[in-house]
What we know:
single chain; alpha+beta; eight-stranded antiparallel sheet; three-stranded antiparallel sheet; 17% strand
Amino acid sequence: MRKTILIVLGLHLVAVLLGTSCKKKSTGVETDAYVSYNWPVSNPDDQGFDANLLADALEEAGERTFLVSLLVVRHGYLVVEEYFTGWDPDDAYSIRSITKSLISASVGIALHQGFIDSLDQRLLDFFPEYNTPSLDPRKRQITIRHLLTMRAGFDRDENVDPQFTNSANWIRDTIQLPLINDPGETFTYSTMAVHLLSGVITKAAGMSTLDFMEANLCEPLGISIRLWDRDPQGYYFGGGSMYMTSRDMARFGYLYIENGLVDGQPIIPEEWIDSSFQNSTGEYRQWGVLEELGYGYLWWLGKIQNHPVQFASGYAGQYIVLIPDVDVVIVTTAIFPFNDEMADAQSESIFELIADHILPSIRDTS
Length: 366
C-alpha cells in the first residue's frame, strides 16, 4: 500500500540493505550533522508533463514490486517522489556501483585542482611500493585513463571478487591480479580496478576519498554520504558500498545536467563532463530498450527512443538516469534479489518503465 507525503505523489524513503527489512542507522562518517538536499517541489503540469499519463506511469511503477524508490526531477524541480514501503524519508540506501560515478567526478576535480597531473599518469606512480621486479611489466603501463574506462586489462568481476573475501590488502592484491588483456586494449568491467582510483585520490590529495568528496562534492551540493565501507588499509571502497538518500542521488545527477554548475559556481569542469560522456569502448551495443550502449568515464551511455541518456548504474536497479535533451533526472532504487538473472530482469524493467511510460508522459519537450 503506497502512502502520499507530497502533492507530487511522494512516499517515505526506504533503506533496504541486501534485501533485508532492517534499517541501518550506523555511519561511516565521524559527524551526525547530516543534510539532504531539499528539492523545490512542483506539480507535473507546471513542468511539462501530462499529469494523467504520469499517474499511469506511477501505477505501472507500483506493479514492479522490486522498486524501493522512484524520483523524477525536471527543470530543477522534484515532480515525482515515490517510495514503496513505509520507511523514514531520511534513511539512506546502498547505491552499489553508482559509487563509481562519484569516483569519476572526484578524479575530474582532482585533475582540475592539480592533484593529478594528467589522465595518462601511471597507476604505479602512486603506489611505487608495489612496483616489484617480478611484476608483470604491462602493469607499469596502466594509467588513470585505463582505470576510468575499464580498460586496465584486469579480468571481469565474477572471476575476481571471490579472491578478495579474505584479502588483507585490496590495493596490493588488485595490482597483483593477472592481466587478461594489455592495458588499453579491451573494455572489461572491473570493480576492483575502480577501487584503485580511490587509492589514487587518497594518495594524490593527501586525504581520504571521503574527505575529498565531502569538501568538493557534498558540501557544495548540500548532500551527505551516510555510510561508506573501507578496505583493511582504510581506503574507501571505490567500487561500491556507499549509502545515500534518493534525493541526494538526484542532486548529484542534476549537477551533470547543469554542466557541473551549482548556483552558477563550477563544481566539476564542464569539459570533464563532456569527456565523461564519450564512448570509450570502441563499439555500441543494444540492451533491452537501450540502444547505442557504451561507456565513458565510469558512466554508462546510450539512447532511449532517440533520446541520448547517461546513467550511473548499480546492481539490480540502482540508477541515476540523465536525459539532458528534456532536462530530466530519474532516480531508482530497488531490492537486491537472490541471483544475477533476477537482477538483470529488474534493471531492464526499469528502462522499459522509462521508455514506455515516463518519457511518453512528457508533453512539453522544450
